[in-house]
Amino acid sequence: MMKNTKTVAVKASGNYDITIGKGLLSNVGEILKGIKKPCRTVIVTDSNVDPLYSDAVIESLEKAGYSADKYVFAAGEKSKNAATFVEILEFLASEKITRSDLLVALGGGVVGDITGFAASCYLRGIDFVQIPTTLLAAVDSSVGGKTAIDLKAGKNLAGAFYQPIAVICDTDTFETLPEKEVACGYAEVIKYGILFEKEFCDSLMSGKCDIDEIVEKCVIFKRDIVERDEFDNGERKLLNLGHTAAHGIEKVSGYSLTHGQAVAVGTVIATKIAENFGICKEGTYREVEKMLEEFNLPTKYDITAEELCEAALSDKKRQSSKLTLVLPEKIGKCVLYDVDVENLKDIFSKAIG
Amino acid sequence: MMKNTKTVAVKASGNYDITIGKGLLSNVGEILKGIKKPCRTVIVTDSNVDPLYSDAVIESLEKAGYSADKYVFAAGEKSKNAATFVEILEFLASEKITRSDLLVALGGGVVGDITGFAASCYLRGIDFVQIPTTLLAAVDSSVGGKTAIDLKAGKNLAGAFYQPIAVICDTDTFETLPEKEVACGYAEVIKYGILFEKEFCDSLMSGKCDIDEIVEKCVIFKRDIVERDEFDNGERKLLNLGHTAAHGIEKVSGYSLTHGQAVAVGTVIATKIAENFGICKEGTYREVEKMLEEFNLPTKYDITAEELCEAALSDKKRQSSKLTLVLPEKIGKCVLYDVDVENLKDIFSKAIG
């Protein structure tokens, strides 16, 4: 029986529930049974997650009457490429998986993104479920239906908007995460606080929040944005807070900085820009730094304005001669702010100087 | 100026016009200007079509203020694979094509299917235009938003439902088609007649139809079905008339028979099954044969019931223990008919015996 679980309903092009709780891996079959009749399932996971959690999920699925196959690829962002994507599709086809079957993405953001994209393309779309096993995936990539792979020219350049039929988040799985990975998740958690709610930031700093509550709060923030702008034509861009600079930082670091660490530094840079523009009051920058430090996240990285510029301008969201920055007005409220591409180097330069 | 063009409006998840006429390649830019402001375009085409038509399209685009790049791949069904698909995506990314730019699919079904699929995935979806240069693509694959690539296990196993922003059909391009290719298109044209309208069959047989009228009529038939069942959950299955057997025939022939030729044979088999079931009156079978013969299409192929069965059962549309056949009640009206998989061999056996 499932006790103390939280459910967040998402109404997008597909409607689905996000279930959050402890020990949920052993309830995956039971939860699915409420929304899809027993069928064949293929669990897609990576070499880190597989030995930890595949067995529990398979057992739960089989107990509920589903059959379960498994596809495992090498863990890491390097696997989030076209080759892995095609291998998954070929595997599904060779196993004669049909339109009425189900993919199960078991793992972090890489697993969720690539599995969701494969689900959207295989036979022009079959159902899939997200089972995030990292805090970062739980609060960010598993919700909202953005799926993707990286191309040679950059991250997330191919993909689909494709909603899962369920997200099942067992917060016990976060306990096996390395500390750096947990911090990475908190970078996105803090991002939501800066974007939407000062009180949430305060309660994070007080250390009194239960992890289930934190995840619930974040997915509600994200859900609300996704419901209003599923296809990323407006408000959803707010979720890129810290990401414009983060892409450059990740790249320059040779991906030795995690996405979350880069977002942390990027958020500090965005806040400094906001201060320089007079959009937020002086000192906001320091407040943001303090929060990130509290969660063992970096606030600085040795990068030049040129490097930040170059990465920002190769970003796929750019249109024409303007670039949209996400800037805090205060902790709990941010705005979209268009700047001329030609001023960008100067803007970055003043923010990191 | 465009004289004597026909326009068919499609209202699906995206709304768009199909423009049909002679000499339209030189009007592509002009037509596009009415729906999308000048941007970068990438023409995707194959090695057969490129030397014939790319220059005319590029000239027309540039005259209207669009810039045009080109991606050419080797002609043939063999290119409709994951490797070509990924190469197109990497090309777009390396050229820094943005979300506001445009892909132009210039060619037959292979070009249209793979380009549409790439457009649906690149940056999670950018606009694309279909410019079919074969009769088959004009009446079938360019309309309705089904895009796909083949996987090792079979044809069209990965793809997306993704509508173009326009279809521009220059019927002059059919004049460079080999006779076999034209016949291939007529297999689908006759299919529409058997599915929807006896009078259309009669006028085809009379030889009095203008090619523009034939294309217009067929895309209206298809448009009407797509508008009612865009995602292929019901009525759209009617368009598979002749295709269940055709897939097996293509395969067994080692693809020496074209898709259209296989569909012709498959349509005869479907009609024979309908006669055997007493669904249509005796002699319908002979009528269908006569029409196909008139257009130089085969009506028989040396294949066993086992081979037909195996191919039919690996078809992606199959669910559980039933297979849906499309069977003529009479020329101009067909029905969906579920049969038990276990009876299938016997059914085929009696139809080809």
Describe the structure in your own words.
- 2 copies of one chain form a homodimer.
- Chain A is α/β, with parallel strands linked by helices and 353 residues long.
- Chain A has helices at 28-33, 50-63, 82-94, 109-121, 135-141, 179-196, 198-206, 211-228, 243-252, 259-277, 284-294, 305-313, 344-352; strands spanning 6-11, 15-21, 40-46, 67-73, 102-107, 127-132, 146-151, 154-161, 166-170, 322-330, 333-340.
- In chain A, the strands form 3 sheets. Chain A has a 7-stranded mixed β-sheet, with helices on both faces. In chain A, strands 7-8 form a two-stranded antiparallel sheet. A two-stranded antiparallel sheet of chain A has the order 10-11.
- The mean pLDDT of chain A is 94.
- The first copy, chain A, has 2 domains: 6-176, Rossmann fold, CATH 3.40.50.1970; 179-209 and 216-352, Up-down Bundle (Dehydroquinate synthase-like, alpha domain), CATH 1.20.1090.
- Chain A is globular.
- The A-B interface holds A 82, 86, 89-90, 93-94, 96, 98-100, 117, 120-125, 146, 148, 151-154, 157-161, 232, 314, 316-320 and B 82, 86, 89-90, 93-94, 96, 98-100, 117, 120-125, 146, 148, 151-154, 157-161, 232, 314, 316-320.
Task: Provide a concise account of the structure shown.
The structure is a homodimer. Helices cover about 45% and strands about 20% of the residues of chain A.
From the structure above, extract its key features.
homodimer, 353 residues, alpha/beta, Rossmann fold, Dehydroquinate synthase-like, alpha domain, seven-stranded mixed β-sheet, 21% strand, globular
